[in-house]
Amino acid sequence: MSDSIQTIAADSKVSMHFALRMEGIATDGTRKKDEVDSTFNTKPAEFVLGDGNLLPGFEEFLIGLTVGDHKTFNVPAEKAFGQTNPQNIQEMKRSSFAVDMPLSPGLVVSFADAAKAELPGVIKSIDGDYVTVDFNHPLAGKNLEFEVQVLAVEA
């Protein structure tokens, strides 16, 4: 490691633990934090800042952090996965799905977009012969909590 200060900057190679949480509602009606993803009990994440592994809205919180920093940030939906786009919620005929496919709300179904790339959609509701599918990212519209512990930084 050539950088004696080991401060995260553009193009830094970073090794860190992270946890991503979103606010939820407990069964008793109180607010709670649901963990979406975490590396704290596994191998740390390694990436180069700016390589596309993290969204820019998350990376901006890392700039200036140094080895040993352990911080928690609140990331608004706009800087995370964006707001929910109503145009990404589509109503489709039940006949568009395989006859033997058991459809239920919450089920993630894989579709192919115009370029034949995989596009996941979440079944929101089924009403007679119509199925409502949400193609927004599952974390769209969610404010998130981002906890990081910086383990190593290389220039």
Automatic annotation (TrEMBL):
PPIase FKBP-type domain residues: 11-105
Pfam families: FKBP_C (PF00254)
Superkingdom of the source species: Bacteria
Reaction equations catalysed: [protein]-peptidylproline (omega=180) = [protein]-peptidylproline (omega=0)
InterPro entries listed in its UniProt record: PPIase_dom_sf (IPR046357), PPIase_FKBP_dom (IPR001179)
Matches recorded under Gene3D superfamilies: 3.10.50.40
Record keywords: Isomerase, Rotamase
Molecular function terms, GO-annotated: peptidyl-prolyl cis-trans isomerase activity
Family note: Belongs to the FKBP-type PPIase family.
Enzyme Commission number(s) from the entry: 5.2.1.8
Name assigned to this protein: Peptidyl-prolyl cis-trans isomerase
Nucleotide-binding recorded as keyword: no
The keyword Isomerase belongs to this UniProt entry's keyword annotation: yes
